[in-house]
Specification:
The protein is built from ten helices and eight strands. The protein has an eight-stranded mixed sheet with strand order 1-2-4-3-5-6-7-8, sandwiched between helices. It has helices at residues 2-16, 34-39, 45-49, 102-115, 133-142, 145-159, 172-184, 202-205, 225-238, 263-278, and strands spanning 64-68, 76-81, 89-94, 118-122, 164-170, 188-194, 212-217, 242-247. By secondary structure, it is an alpha/beta fold.
């Protein structure tokens, strides 16, 4: 009887630290970290259905793929667009769950032109790019946080000791934008999160060297008002500032290669983000 009870307890405990796979918003019961929590969304059929395959995009090829050393593993890669005039300012971009695709490369060129900074779009998937939601979900869940952090640090070293950074990302990359800012500490002057999962650890947030601009679609069923309000409260507790800008749009609204693209909301958000980054 004692053995049976022990087996039942262990089974129940294992279920508590797993992710439910149902057709609803899915969160890991294990508190884990922010990136793991966002990755668990790929178990949700509604989340996958909300991400139709990206529309074809023609890359401008204004930048180049570069390779750099990564501690503890193989070399990392990033897409780099250099500013027309020499500068030590960098915008570090973090791709969506699709990977470092042509859309992100085009965004790199546009932001470099508009801000007059170098742009380095890091590849957290080590060369893999998804074209379907199923592929993207597997890549996102397979993204090792330790490896991703090492890639970010390697990219920063590639930029050079004199470089300072602004971080920005969308969706999966929105969360990594904040993680990158935490990782690179006082080298980071600005952080933009487009509907990404915020860090919940107040002690970690206390180490931020920058404020944060958060872009929130009101119709987002995953990065909800509850998630954003909790982030605001945590940032306040950490003594840091976050500015939330809301738009009557849905998740992935800022991606022109997405069928869910909301042109007006995307343009309005871009004006806000551009003004913020130009001030940094």
């Amino acid at each position: 009887m004692r053995t049976l009870l022990l087996s039942f307890f262990l089974f129940a405990l294992s279920g508590f630290y797993s992710c439910e796979n149902q057709d609803k918003v899915v969160m890991c019961h294990d508190p884990g970290n922010a990136t793991a929590q966002f990755a668990s969304f790929s178990n949700d059929k509604a989340f996958r259905n909300a991400h139709p395959s990206p529309l074809p995009t023609t890359v401008t090829n204004e930048g180049e793929m570069v390779e750099f050393q990564v501690a503890g593993g193989p070399n990392g890669h990033a897409y780099v667009v250099k500013a027309h005039e020499a500068t030590n300012k960098y915008l570090m971009l973090f791709h969506e769950w699709w990977g470092l695709n042509d859309y992100i490369k085009n965004e790199s060129a546009m932001w470099s032109h508009e801000l007059g900074v170098n742009v380095i779009a890091v590849d957290l998937y080590d060369g893999h790019v998804a074209t379907t939601a199923e592929e993207a979900g597997k890549l996102m869940q397979g993204c090792d946080a330790k490896r991703a952090s090492a890639i970010i640090e390697g990219a920063a070293k590639y930029a050079g000791d004199a470089a300072d950074f602004r971080t920005m990302g969308w969706c999966f990359g929105g969360g990594w934008s904040l993680q990158g800012a935490l990782l690179l500490k006082d080298k980071v002057k600005a952080c933009v999160m487009y509907y990404g999962m915020p860090e919940k650890d107040v002690e970690k947030l206390k180490t931020l060297s920058t404020d944060v601009v958060f872009i929130q679609p009101k119709q987002d069923k995953w990065i909800t008002q509850e998630v954003v309000t909790e982030f605001q409260n945590n940032m306040k507790s950490a003594g840091k500032m976050v500015t939330v800008h809301q738009y009557d749009a849905d998740h992935a609204f800022a991606n022109p290669s997405s069928p869910r693209y909301n042109e007006q909301a995307a343009k309005d958000a871009r004006v806000v983000v551009k003004a913020y980054l130009l001030g940094k």
